[in-house]
Write a structure and sequence with these properties.
Layout (H helix, E strand, L loop, with lengths): L10 E18 L5 E21 L4 E3 L12 H13 L4 E7 L10 H16 L6 H9 L5 H6 L3 E4 L4 E4 L6 E5 L7 H5 L26 H7 L1 H10 L6 E2 L6 E5 L2 H9 L7 E5 L12
Parallel strand pairs: 3-4
Antiparallel strand pairs: 1-2, 2-4, 2-5, 5-6, 7-9, 7-10, 8-9
Helix pairs in contact: 1-2, 6-7
Length: about 280
């Protein structure tokens, strides 16, 4: 009688996007890292990560993104870091449905890594708490701890010092210019403002705020300026992170969908709602 090969079972986990509602560069550390102030907001649009167990202890990415070798992929690095840190002999197979554009400022790679850390910590029964997972995430990138923190946050430092902030529910139109912007290119631009005076959390959103990186991106990438100008017809438009994606906030779903329905066929974007906490929030408790 033939032996049956066990069927591989993949489990799906969401990796939501973030928006920077503002981003000030307030200084620079001696090691070159920029000091920031920002408000991160999570939205209900993102990638989907699928994970299956691998009893051989290997970490395998089954559909790596074009131009991103598995060795440098943040999902693979997150899984291997968790193995190394805990001494776990468990392995996994990874797949991704990619919706968030690379180089778009929506935190796609960081969110993917955070989802892998939280999901594997749970599936491998490692018992790391949220603070420990955030510390591991910081070794992968400054935005990773935000997704493990899992709630809207006022952030300082290099983006890793997080305090929960209460914000009203809103809907967003997010436009995705067809360009990938390297973060390091924008932060190294000599024209970047690096001395914006810090604000206190209680001053947001009443204080005048902006994204300090936006002026540099507008100059270097005219297509981003084109998208910002189109969206500004309907309210305040802003860039998230170091670009390229831009967004506007609306009070109702209908308002957001009306604006999205007017989007020229040569432009692309989506509508998303704010979420109070990460869908995997409870996995980190």
């Amino acid at each position: 009688m033939a032996t049956r090969t066990p069927m591989t079972v993949f489990h799906s986990f969401p990796a939501p996007a973030k928006l920077n509602l503002f981003l000030h560069v307030t200084g620079r550390r001696p090691d070159g890292y920029h000091l920031l102030q920002t408000v991160f907001r999570l939205i209900d649009f993102g990638d989907t990560i699928e994970i299956a167990d691998d009893d051989n202890g290997k970490i395998t990415h089954e559909n790596p993104l074009p131009g991103v070798p598995a060795e440098t992929d943040l999902m693979v690095r997150a899984a291997r870091l968790l193995q190394e840190h805990t001494g776990s002999t468990r392995g996994c197979r990874l797949r991704i449905t990619k919706r968030l554009p690379m180089g778009g400022g929506l935190g796609g790679g960081s969110s993917d890594a955070a989802t892998v850390l939280m999901a594997l910590n749970h599936r491998w029964r490692l018992g790391l708490n949220r603070a420990a997972l955030q510390a591991l995430g910081l070794r992968l990138g400054a935005d990773v701890p935000l997704f493990i923190f899992g709630r809207d946050a006022f952030a300082e430092g290099i983006g890793e010092a997080l305090k929960e902030i209460s914000l009203p529910q809103q809907w967003y139109v997010v436009l995705t210019p067809p360009v990938s912007i390297p973060t390091i290119e924008i932060f190294s631009d000599p024209c970047l403002t690096r001395n914006t005076p810090p604000i206190i959390m209680a001053a947001f959103p009443n204080n005048r705020v902006r994204n300090d990186l936006e002026a540099v991106v507008r100059k270097r990438y005219p297509i981003v300026e084109k998208y910002l100008n189109w969206l500004s017809q309907f309210g305040n438009s802003a860039m998230t992170g170091s670009g390229a994606c831009v967004f506007s906030a609306f009070d109702t779903h209908d308002e957001a969908m009306r604006v999205l329905s007017l989007l020229p066929p040569t432009m692309q974007g989506f509508s998303a709602q704010s979420i109070k906490q990460h869908p995997l929030f409870n996995l980190a408790d």
